[in-house]
Amino acid sequence: MPAVQETIEQVRKIDVDQYKYGFESFIEMDKAPKGLSEDIVRFISAKKGEPEWMLEWRLGAYRRWQTLEEPNWARVDYPKIDFQDIYFYAAPKSTPGPTSLDEVDPEILKVYEKLGIPLREQEILAGVQKQAAPVDELADEEAGDNVYKSGRVAVDAVFDSVSVVTTFKDELAKAGVIFCSISEAIREHPELVKKYLGSVVPTSDNYYATLNSAVFTDGSFVFVPKGVRCPMELSTYFRINEKNTGQFERTLIIAEEGAYVSYLEGCTAPQRDENQLHAAVVELVALDDAEIKYSTVQNWYPGDAQGKGGIYNFVTKRGDCRGDRSKISWTQVETGSAITWKYPSCILRGDDSRGEFYSIAVSNGYQQVDSGTKMIHLGKNTSSRIISKGIAAGFSQNTYRGQVSAHRKATNARNFTQCDSLLIGNQCGAHTVPYIEAKNSSAQFEHEATTSKISDDQKFYVMQRGIPEEEAIALIVNGFVKEVIQELPMEFAVEAQKLIGISLEGSVG
Amino acid sequence: MNMRAEIQRTPAEAALVDAFGERLSLLPGDGAIMVKRDDAIEQVKAGLPTRRVESWHYTDLRRLLANVPAFDASVKAKSVAPLIEGSTVLSLANGVSQAVSSIEGVTLQRLADKLTDGSYAAALVTYGTDDAIGAINTAFVADGYFVDIEAGVQLDKPVELQNLQAGGQSHVRLPVRVGAGAKATIVERQTGEGAGLVSSVSQLLVGDDAEVLWLIVQDQPETATHLAQFKAELGKNAKLTLFVMNAGGKLVRQEVIVKASGEGADFKLRGVNLLAGDSHVDVTMVLDHAVPHTSSTEVVRNVVTGRAKGVFQGRINVHQIAQKTDARMACNTLLLSDDGEFSTKPELEIFADDVACGHGATVTEIDHNHLFYLMARGIDEKSARGLLIRAFLAEVIEELEDESVVDPLEELLSNWFATHG
Fold first, then answer.
1. Same domain, B160 and B75
2. Which of B331, B309, B193, B300 is nearest to B252 (CA)?
3. Whole-number pLDDT of residue A17
4. How far does A63 lie from chain B, in Å, by closest CA?
5. What is the rounded (10 degree) CA torsion for A385, A387, A388, A391?
6. Of A66-70, A87-91, B341-345, which has the strongest mean pLDDT?
7. A111-115, B278-282, B388-392: which has the minimum mean pLDDT?
């Protein structure tokens, strides 16, 4: 943003570009004027054709936001953000609300193609290694594990401020699953949105969540009705393309009684010298016996080798295990962003509910990561598990910050936390800041953390077998993070492993 | 927060500021010392820390500090026998030192004299805007003992620094310097009777190759407010073992601030915190590994009963040049009551890559299998529980090995269980 604007021209040439998604596409855009005001909030709401109640909700949040101060407790350091220098709305110019892929601007499809995200269904089938069965044959199969093995993934693609396309909608609808952009959900399913939006992350929650509530432009909406096991993986790809835009997406996932859904999220952005803001809010609601699995591979542009540019990733993610025996699991692989500031959390409200958090955070260059989770035990017999692996290289700072708390009535609350950090090079930092709070004597909390470097013995062992140093490190690191990678859906696991390799390139020597 | 200035002072804040005005003329020292005191009271005027201040996250001093009694010169503190038999006792009665006898190889001075002549001015420092204990103490400190152990001296008898209160306020400092190659055992005894407000700051310098065992034993009455700070700096190959036992007080904060600034330095912290009633006991440690090849281990064990609230915050900072640091920290808590509460924040801040650092924290009830094992052997539940809790704590105490030290500490433990168990 403005702090670095004057130097943009001088640093056009970047020689350390390992970021392979850094290309920029020239697509005709429809933008709101720069800056933030009530008028912009009204503009966004009008663009989206939203009902009056939604506009009021946004304005309420905006007024609240004006009274808030930017938080500064995280271990990150960045110049003050000028919110008047950001475009809060940018959408590709095309017919409003494409109904099929053919109506989508071919340039956008090309972008997703370059990113390797198959929007066209046949490509999805071609994209997986497994022998894929024809679609109609699959439809006959029982909903269950074997369907997953087909590797089909329904995708919602979000380009700057708007969702451009959602695939497999009809087939999902047959199962009763609603998967669409949040704008569409506000129009088509207002009763559900009204009931759940802001019920996990209230508009007054925190500075960036409140900002998001005022200006969110799109995101995904998932509703899995009672007893339904969502027949395929759902996925959203977020792409920031325009200059100076902020991306504010809002995702809401609801799993009714006994439902199951697995959702993946991926993010990329072009290489730019200025910083861009991404402030998302994700809300998950799991009712009795429901299970939500949320996986993220975050690969926003991290800035160049000198720490110029990159995305500010200030995200609020929270899951509410509202029902008894419900389960929410967060898995994240964080390799991108100049600054990451996010704490996917679980509120374990229902009795016997369970929360899980698996995280790999890799930082290199001048990246700053302050990430972790919160496990709030409210119900009886609730359990949670946290596995966090931080890898710091270059000049980066990598912080795990997590909270585990058991309230008075949380009898038999159980938590296990393990956070390990690996340091590569002596210019980086790894930090661990856990908050452990017990108010119930039957609670049982265990926390352990370690920090170390890759031992010379390990490296020697691998290199002695003819593997070059950089690959040896990647191999050891992959072993270090294996516990988390295992939690990812197969297609993502491969991608995540490669990403970690790419992120650590140039960290040796 | 710039809004703080507009917030009205709490009664405790107002009482402190007023007390400063009244005491000013009685406090020793002028010139440089007064400047330090003025700065410190300004810090208090700006407001006591709230939970928004990270280092006070679990001890909202602004809300919790209710008891600021007036200074009371008439009360007389009762003397107590030293913890370890045969110790040389230096006693402070309600914040006032006694005439000092001499020990061979040790220079002893009353701190009031060093404040009066201004020679202590340079050491009168707080370590940041969140150092509320340092600020309160700097503003009001009137006395204490200065102990200087010469290089190479091996003290055969422990030195016991007693800080005895009997209500009212007392603010003391205990600066101790242990010369190169010297060896000493020092007991810091914090006790008394009455609902006093005590602030106490110990400053220890451990010279190269010196070895110190420092025991802090705090058993204030359950109405007292006890704000204490222990600061130490370790030279080359210096060894410091700090043992902290908290077994009393209503509002207690014990800060431990240690810097390993000589290669080969080794620091050990062993803590036993016994919490009962509606006390609030906070032990906060900040440990800096500032040079290569230093090591530390910290083991803190807590037992929480009644409606007590316990806090342990431990931060290990490993500086960028401090390669080969070996640091381990563990905090284990038995939370025995559903009305009790324990919060812990073990932090690692690491800037060097070739280190081995770890921390572990557990909060739990007594293991039912262990209980079953004992009860199956005919031991009733109450005794079985008692045995297990004692064993959990004794493990830390017994590490001190020296019987003359271990025995009196175990006796204190027994006394506590006799009244609270």
1. yes
2. B309
3. 44
4. 20
5. 180
6. B341-345
7. A111-115
Does the model's pTM come out above 0.90? no
Asked if B352 and B377 sit in the same domain, the reply is: no
The pLDDT of B379-398, averaged and rounded, is: 92
Q: What is the DSSP string of A232-276?
A: SEEEEEEE--STTB-B-BEEEEEE-TT-EEEEEEEEE----SSEE
**Residues in a beta bridge with B245:** B217, B272
Q: Are residues B259 and B381 in the same domain?
A: no
B127 plus B101 within the same structural domain: yes
pLDDT tens-digit map of A263-304: 888 766 666 667 778 888 999 999 999 999 998 888 777 877
pLDDT of residue A238 exceeding 80: no
Specify whether B108 is located in the same domain as B201: yes
Q: What is the pLDDT of residue A509?
A: 43
Average pLDDT, chain B: 92
Q: Which of A365-374, B5-14, B85-94 has the least mean pLDDT?
A: B5-14
Tens of pLDDT, residue by residue over B63-79, are 999 889 998 888 888 88
B:59-98 residues touching chain A, CB 8 A cutoff:
none
Structural domain ending residue among the three candidates B365, B383, B403: B365
Whether residue B335 sits in one domain with residue B392:
no
Are B355 and A431 inside 8 Å of each other by CB? no
Parallel/antiparallel/unpaired status of strands A444-453 and B143-149: unpaired
Does residue B199 sit in the same domain as residue B341?
Answer: yes
A321–chain B nearest CA distance, Å? 23
Q: Do B359 and A429 touch (CB under 8 A)?
A: no
Mutate which: A418, A424, A433, A436, vs B, most B CBs within 10 A: A436
Tell the residue number behind the tokens 């820390």, with chain if given. B49
Q: Out of A421, A436, A441, name the one closest to residue B336 (CB).
A: A441
Nearest-angstrom CA–CA distance, A5 and A2: 5
**How far is Cα of residue A461 from the mean position of the Cα atoms in its chain?**
36
Using one digit for the tens of pLDDT, what is the confidence trace for A220-237?
A: 899 999 999 988 888 887
In chain A, residues with a C-beta closer than 8 Å to the C-beta of B349 are: 429, 431
CA distance A392 to chain B (A): 9
The identity of residue A187, as a single letter, is R
pLDDT band at A141 (very low <50, low <70, confident <90, very high): very low
CB B220 within 8 A of CB B247: no
What are the C-alpha distances in Å from B158 to residues A42, A175, B79, B83, B184? 75, 79, 18, 10, 7
Last residue of one domain, picked from the residues B338, B365, B392? B365
pLDDT band at A165 (very low <50, low <70, confident <90, very high): low
Show residues of chain A in contact with B335, CB under 8 Å.
438, 440-441, 443
Mean pLDDT, chain A, integer: 79
Rounded Cα–Cα distance for residues B182 and B105 (Å): 10
Cα A203 from Cα A162, distance rounded (Å): 21
Residues B360 and B372 in one domain: no
Query: Range of B326's domain?
Result: 2-365
Chain A segment 380-409 residues within 8 A of B by beta carbon are: 408
Tell me the pairing of strands A310-321 and A345-348. parallel
CB spacing of A426 vs B354 below 8 angstroms: yes
Which tokens in the block code for residue A125? 């089938």
CB–CB contact B360 A448 (8 Å): yes
C-alpha span between B248 and B190 (Å, rounded): 10
Work out the pLDDT band at A312, boundaries 50, 70, 90.
Answer: confident
In the numeric block, which tokens belong to residue B40? 């410190």
Give chain B's domain count: 2
A-chain residue closest to B349, CA distance:
A431
Distance CA B38, CA B30 (A): 11
